[in-house]
């Protein structure tokens, strides 16, 4: 027997000992609920801890099966962090109910009394999935059966049914919860289970119903027979008085309470509402209580307020049970995707508390204690709510909040993978403002820590990321992945860390001063900083595209041999000699015979019979020309989609067996040498190279008609229209000269598309186009790509960034080009320069783009954008420039401009030279 005092103290007595004693092991705990089984006991503390003790023959203590008996209360670790509303014990099984209606059971299960669908004993709490989202508000355990009550007044029973105690008009056992059909239409408000019988109370009818074993008259029906269905108990006539109970000359609303003992039943008719009727559960931060904390100025009350604040905010369960979203019972829908919380209530609470520094600081101190003892394996989404709540409470930007954010990060990163995945799902469903705030906090902490890291990197040979920096950056990267999976709720720049630019300086890639190679050689002191930068690549989300290009450049230069940790050992270039007239054949021959190490060298192209020297322009021109040749329809290498002007791999490899391996190699070489190669691939290619599955959106880009048709199937509301489409799991494709039907799944031709399977059909269709149908050519292409690009840091790029690096872009700003231009032996104010820009800006758009191609070998802007693109105008110091025509080679960012003081002469000469180059390059 257990007795609970009004002060939360627990007194125990046993059958063989008549004396009572205070349970000293729990004397420091404020107990709010108790429950007794045949030979085991449970107690729930106000701080949300569940303790069990007694016999453990069937696992009824919920602490494993290592001990058979204990007289000392054991904390049920598996339920840590779950805010409990009620506890209940059966003969040898136990149940608990959370504030959000989740039910857990453990112990003996011979008859299915745990409701888990089997008859195996459970030694730890197990979630009853069959009751998920059923809005359970009360639980009761019999000897070997269980009853649960929903908020809607429905009763479910399960377990042993040999006496009819389940109320299903049978004596069969039930392994999973089953609604008592006989009670349909009667809204039940109370349930109570005896050893082999069950009681329910229907307030609208003012009736108690009983069913099950009646051998000792416990059903209250006047005999000892069993009842298989609920039947009313005959209550004293003076209790039934229109819902009133007599109190002398006045009447008041009566309160009925039902109790089922082993073989007894008790119905209490209370003259007034009694605390006994309402169960106290885990303490939570309620509005009324919080308002008292804020408004109370009585020093005498401060100690009690402090105790309450510490009780709640140093307890996982109490924090998790606070701020529930009870509007429309949303907290009952708690799942791996839904937290069941009202985040706006958390924010309102923070704002209230923040106005009272003394109260707020007490709460923060309690949170600090909480963060040092969090569980690494929460057993429920309910136990993960605090990871959403605490960041809101730490919105301040002082050192203390940063320290606590680091502790929070440590706790999150120590979660088991399955629990972290649930938390990520909860994050992805947060309102955007709260998610953005969370990202902002860890971005701010990362920036502070990174600044310190940079100082260390410049002064120490041993460059290491401090644990707190790693934790903040890991958090940012995880949140970035959540953001990406959720379809980018917030922009990527929310994750960038601008301090990264302090490591490498922002202007190395502009053509101002030394080249990048010279910059590295001249800046030996930067060696440690570059090593530091490479360490940070474990967290790609912190880099903007410009930063990623810098990191990739460093990766290339290390392989080039222009930089290593000890000295500069530059490799010689790879000279690729090719004939324009036999461009593809010469390239294929060179690629087939090249040794693997050859691709680590930087490329220099020599067109046979031409005077041009490759300082970057000829190799760019080479990639521009060969890309054009390989992608044209006449080459018959790729599938060309007319409605998108994009290319994709064919289902069968044409021509030579290594065609796509060689094209992939060429593709990789372009990236390794940072040359634009405008293959007209869709974004899906870059996703596949980065191991990101293509989607329907990618098919819409490649083949708008097919994509639109599939979207219409997904959007169709009527089954009969889908039936009339007569679609099945097949796809019609050209093979050779005929059309063939290909099944997207086994027996696909016999499976019509319906509303239930259309998503599967669309996914299979997309998978076929981008994966199954092109498996061989794409794998060849990927293998070639990895051969042609030995650098690895390209994996930092997002698919759209990856695409832009290859294709460049066409966002021209000619005024910006003029602003960025540098001059050698010229001044910006010289008349020749003024004349040149006057002539240039008068050119039509196509002529300007062709001039760009003359300067760089391509008419596309590099990935960094026009702002970072510049060229140099130098004085062409020849007495008669005309003697050097008609030679026209790509000059790569340098325009040799003779001093033509007359604008008309300059216009004529410039246009003539440009026209000659256009004819030359197009031929």
Automatic annotation (TrEMBL):
Q: Where is the HECT domain?
A: 595-923
Gene Ontology CC: one annotated term? cytoplasm
- Where is it localised? Cytoplasm
MF GO annotations: ubiquitin protein ligase activity
Pfam families the record matches: HECT, WD40_RLD
List the keywords (alphabetical).
Answer: Cytoplasm, Repeat, Transferase, Ubl conjugation pathway
Q: Where is the signal peptide?
A: none
- Intervals holding RCC repeats: 48-100, 101-152, 153-204, 206-271
InterPro entries according to UniProt: HECT_dom, Hect_E3_ubiquitin_ligase, RCC1-like_dom, RCC1/BLIP-II, Reg_chr_condens, Ub-ligase/GTPase-reg
A GO biological process held by the record: protein ubiquitination
Q: Which PROSITE patterns match?
A: HECT, RCC1_2, RCC1_3
Q: Which residues form the active site?
A: 891 (glycyl thioester intermediate)
Q: Which residues cross the membrane?
A: none
Top-level taxon of the source organism:
Eukaryota
Listed name of the protein: HECT domain-containing protein
